[in-house]
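Sample entry (335 residues):
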Amino acid sequence: MSASSFQIITYVVSLSIASFLVLILFIPLDKAEADNGKNLVPQWIKHDAVWWHDGKISYSEFINSIKWSVEKKIIPIQLVVLNNSTQSRSYEFKDIAYYWGTGRISDKDFVSTVRYMIKNGGIRMDDNFRSSISQQLKTISVTNETEKSVVVVPILTSSAYSDMGFYAHYRGECSRCLTVKIHDDLHSLMDSSNGLKVLKSLGYHTITDIDIDKNPKILEQYDEVILLHNEYVTQREFDAITKHPQVLYLYPNALYAKVSIDYWNNTVTLVRGHGYPNSTIVNGFGWQYDNSKLEYDRGCENWNFHKIYNGMMLSCYPEWRLDYDMTLLQAIKDF
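Predicted structure, serialized as tokens:
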């Protein structure tokens, strides 16, 4: 098996904690790290990998080094709650360890393999480690909270990003793509489907753009409203959200463009914004709090919230940071 065949894979370990599944996730890399995948794991563990391959130390000695590094958070693996799973495939761990120790594969690929080993029982974490995870999950979960928070699912934005949708028009590939069918199969790349999974698994209630457009007063039932990447919204939805007194704008670029809905034909149409109907139009609502320029910070290394008149805005695009940043998840809960 060549080194180039190794790919990052998501692995799941099932733990029965407050009826959730625990997903072990690799901390996303910034661009520089993603390009070379280096310097994520201490060099001494690489030496151990080569020694194990050469028979100088035993399998159990090498695995104990890995376990110790994970438990001490030296190897950058964290845990959050999710309720979905993905398939995995097996690798020859010994060969991978050797390739990694000799620099033929990246730290990033090796950490993925460690995740696989934990998921499949090749590396068994002790009860203290599991207990620590359990406590973290209880802390950030809102399942038993009495305060009512709701997450707005960006159905309209997902529809806009669909194949031959609005972006085909923006790219000049289609002159009739500013009306598309509404669907609830959230786009996995350009919206906030991952963040939605994380928050739902932590017990947050959800409603959709459609729910708000049909009944704007629905938001009055909730103490707090959490927006994801709700880029495309109707005027009724915009008014309902901007009038609510406690909104967490978790993703930049929300409330960016105005759309209309044809419920008879189940379609959404761009009305204004994103350079339409002319290139001088940016925010379709002329919203003074538009923070779309912040969406390009995908690492969220130095995230913070800033206050506006009806809530708080996050300073970056947190789609993958929500996988592992317990402090950010706690801040969302404390909002």
